[in-house]
Amino acid sequence: MGLSAKILNAFQDDPKKAEVLVEIAEIIEKNYIKFPNNIATKDDIELAKSEIQLQIKKLESDTLIKLKELDGKIENTKIELEGKIESTKKELEGKIETTKKELEIKLKELDGKIETTKKELEGKIETTKKELEVKIEQVKSSLLKWSFVFWITQMATLLGILFVVLNIKS
Hints:
single chain, mainly alpha
């Protein structure tokens, strides 16, 4: 039985008062009855607080578990990457060593070629030097021969002129 019915029963002998009180009761019931589900009591708040604290603890626990999982994954990835870095380092060191040996071999080959070329050029220089010495000697002897011919011709000419000059005076 609602509040309005109780008021009507209580004030049956005075219907006007009952009607006014019923109207007031209905207004209160309409407005007040809308809110009881939305109004929290202290117990409701304490219960909600406890539930929220439990949820927070569960989330903290779940977060810690996830963090530990991530730490494990990070550590595994770190170990894996360090292994890859080490193997790559060894591979590159091997390639560097191989390249170094190849370059040393090539340098020795180049040194040998340079030495061979140097000897060949020294031989050609020696040959050219001897050829030039021979040609210079030939030019010298040719010049000496022509010089001798020139002086003999000059002497003959002078003797001829002298002979003519002396014959003219005598």
